[in-house]
Amino acid sequence: MHLVSVPAEPYAFEFYPATAALLVIDMQRDFVEPGGFGAMLGNDVTPLRRAIAPTRRVLDAARRIGIMVVHTREGHRPDLSDLPPAKKARGRLKTGIGDQGPMGRVLVRGERGHDIVPELAPVPGEPVVDKPGKGAFYATDLETILRCRGIKSLLVAGVTTEVCVHTTVREANDRGFECLVLEDCVASYFPEFHEAGIKMIKAQGGIFGWVSSSAALLQALEKAGDAGAP
Question: Which of 7, 28, 27 is nearest to 224 (CA)?
């Protein structure tokens, strides 16, 4: 496929599908579904669930075109050997990481709550990166996976905007990857945090990356596909 140009802020985001990856961050039951860890903290999961449908449309397009797809999950080993005491203690929660919750032990690998929601479940061949922290590059092999595939551009979806998405985009920016954050495919429990997080990414000429929508991306992909058709 030819060069794809997506209308975006602060200016058009251009990439080649062969060197791009769709990065779907932490779309897990514990964060997105009622009864998960996010809901246990008193959050309304509705804003996060709104990101599922547009993300699915982008995911379907990426699979159809052959854009690499990578999923991430935040969670810890069952023995919690990779859980820093400071993270475990944070918030002084009655039910915290590693404790038993409605979907199994909270943010523990292998538990139901740790799973990616069925609507966005990985298919064979799509790497799933398990991360112990907020950023997807910390203590993972994500960078190695991307470098080995010659990836230069990241199309970013997932939750939450101001935490794991923002941390990952910042980390990616420092590593030389160009990031397009799809505003309707990322979400926060707090609308004001989402809004601020999006503004920060595209500020000062795109200090961390670009911002666009799933509709703009899909239209640009279709246009590029038509241009390359015989």
Answer: 7
Q: What is the pLDDT of residue 227?
A: 62
Which DSSP category does 78 fall into? T
Query: Does the annotation mark 26 as catalytic?
Result: yes
**Is 179 noted as a catalytic residue in this protein?**
no
Looking at residue 161, the DSSP 8-state letter turns out to be I
Coil/strand/helix, residue 185: strand
Q: What is the CATH number of the domain that holds 197?
A: 3.40.50.850
Number of domains the chain is built from: 1
- Annotated active-site residue 148? The verdict is no
Domain carrying residue 105 = 4-228
Query: How far is residue 226's CA from residue 230's CA, in Å, rounded to a whole number?
Result: 9
Q: For residue range 147-186, what is the model confidence (pLDDT) as tens digits?
A: 999 999 999 999 999 999 999 999 999 999 999 999 999 9
